[in-house]
């Protein structure tokens, strides 16, 4: 949300154990409480009158400091699973531990002061100001007034709202996106190690939604909370989740893995359908230019003789040359047919598209499609040339991803068919041995 991290608050709730990532990020000057591990151990929830439990034997580890997204169809048990973490719903059987402690051993009210909870629309109290909404949990924890006020300002800045302007407003005086931001601030108020969010950005328009997602990721980069986010939107799950749990009916895990692995290798047809047929494009959003073998460019310096540039292009078997300035930074990308006169000039205002290797491939494609350039010049952080990535290379990369996915699917189908055939054969043998006579087909 803002680029400045929240001011550390040294006297918040008891320090929780942190994982390596958590302590590394907190070392950067912030002493925010980082996330703790959450474990579901054979958890069942049966609502009255249900034949099959809403959540049927769920076992799962959510690593400390990570974002796990629960994604699945409506009614699959996502919300029920989430609410069992803060005991808004009590499991029928099984146990949930947070930071190694069984939640059944904790007072539910106290537990909920240590777990932020954000739901759709922010669910702010309409009769309370923004400041009072954020202060709810700190007041329950008897924080001193000065500390609460400081925390409110800190959090509003963190979620990108100017405290002076927004503190005293009422929820109805805010846009949907702003209400949602205040909801996130309220969830983080007492610096809990765990933040639960249920369809948090479901009520805002797609552009605001994308911005809120980006801001949440920026906040998480400094805070390293353990976050569990329920969504029915696979794109949101992929964007936000370090890991994604694809849930089938009754809280069954269809697949629980990183987005990369789920997209590249869906566990079954259900997951493949759910992540969608355009999974190659989704994979592009997870890969950067670092995964592309860059092509080597022909290079020339501005002011070099044209004949030398032509020779270099021939030598590199290229139709284009990258023109470098005195500091070896690319300033133009010229077709050899445009090399005229005696010396090479970079054309003013014609700088090629310059990208660093951390740019995701979907952004590269978007950039190239809208620019009409047939490639991009890739540079390092100092602006020096690394190589060229062409439009053809990226589209070939998409085709490769698709081909690999098709191969994996075909291989899975083959394995499944073989297993079916083996099972059938075994059945026939068993039937024969049991003295039930020859199986039908064999008797023909
Ligand atoms: N309070 C409740 N009482 C009875 N049944 C419920 C209750 N809450 C949810 N259910 C049922 O449990 C199942 C899982 O619901 P839920 O956890 O809300 O799914 P999701 O969040 O994935 O849409 C559904 O069949 C739903 O109808
Ligand atoms: Mg739900």
UniProtKB/TrEMBL annotation:
Keyword Coiled coil set for record: no
Compositional bias annotation for Low complexity: 17-31
Enzyme class per UniProt: translocase
Biased composition (Polar residues): 1-16
Entry-linked InterPro entries: AAA+_ATPase, ABC_transporter-like_ATP-bd, ABC_transporter-like_CS, CBS_dom, CBS_dom_sf, P-loop_NTPase
Region (Disordered): 1-31, 407-444
Residue ranges constituting the ABC transporter domain according to the UniProt record: 38-275
Biased segments, Basic and acidic residues type: 407-427
Record domain CBS: where: 346-404
Family: Belongs to the ABC transporter superfamily.
Protein name from the UniProt record: ABC-type quaternary amine transporter
Species whose genome carries this gene: Propionibacterium freudenreichii subsp. shermanii (strain ATCC 9614 / DSM 4902 / CIP 103027 / NCIMB 8099 / CIRM-BIA1)
Gene label: opuCA
């Amino acid at each position: 949300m803002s680029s400045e991290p929240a001011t550390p608050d040294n006297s918040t709730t008891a320090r929780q154990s942190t994982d390596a990532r958590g302590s590394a990020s907190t070392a950067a000057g912030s002493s925010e409480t980082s996330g703790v591990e959450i474990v579901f151990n054979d958890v069942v929830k049966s609502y009255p009158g249900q034949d099959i439990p809403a959540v049927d034997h769920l076992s799962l580890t959510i690593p400390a400091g990570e974002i796990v997204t629960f994604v699945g169809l409506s009614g699959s048990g996502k919300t029920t699973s989430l609410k069992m973490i803060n005991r808004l719903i009590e499991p029928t059987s099984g146990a949930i531990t947070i930071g190694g402690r069984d939640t059944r051993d904790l007072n539910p009210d106290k537990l909920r002061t240590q777990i932020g909870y954000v739901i759709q629309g922010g669910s702010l109290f309409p009769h309370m100001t923004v400041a009072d909404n954020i202060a709810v949990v700190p007041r329950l924890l008897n924080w001193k007034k000065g500390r609460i006020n400081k925390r409110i300002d800190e959090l509003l800045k963190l979620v990108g709202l100017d405290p002076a302007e927004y503190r005293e407003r009422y929820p109805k005086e805010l846009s949907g996106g702003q209400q949602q931001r205040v909801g996130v601030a309220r969830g983080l108020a007492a610096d809990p190690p765990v933040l639960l969010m249920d369809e948090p950005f479901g009520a805002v328009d797609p552009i605001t939604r994308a911005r809120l997602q980006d801001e949440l990721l920026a906040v998480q980069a400094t805070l390293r909370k353990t976050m569990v986010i329920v969504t029915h939107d696979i794109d949101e799950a992929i964007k936000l989740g370090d890991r994604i749990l694809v849930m089938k009916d009754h809280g069954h895990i269809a697949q629980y893995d990183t987005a990369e692995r789920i997209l590249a290798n869906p566990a079954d047809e259900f997951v493949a359908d759910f992540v969608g047929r355009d999974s190659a494009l989704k994979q592009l959003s997870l890969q950067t230019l670092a995964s592309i073998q860059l092509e080597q460019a022909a290079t020339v310096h501005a002011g070099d003789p044209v004949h030398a540039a032509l020779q270099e292009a021939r030598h590199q078997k290229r139709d284009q040359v990258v023109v470098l300035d005195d500091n070896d930074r690319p300033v133009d990308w010229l077709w050899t047919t445009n090399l005229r006169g005696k010396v090479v000039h970079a054309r003013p205002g014609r700088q090629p598209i310059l990208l660093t290797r951390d740019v995701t491939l979907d952004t590269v494609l978007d950039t190239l499609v809208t620019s009409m350039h047939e490639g991009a010049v890739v540079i390092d952080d100092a602006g020096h040339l690394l190589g060229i990535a062409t439009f053809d290379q990226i589209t070939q990369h998409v085709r490769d991803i698709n081909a690999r996915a098709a191969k994996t699917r075909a291989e899975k189908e083959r394995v499944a068919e073989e297993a079916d055939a083996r099972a059938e054969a075994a059945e026939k043998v068993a039937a024969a041995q049991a003295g039930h006579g020859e199986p039908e087909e064999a008797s023909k």
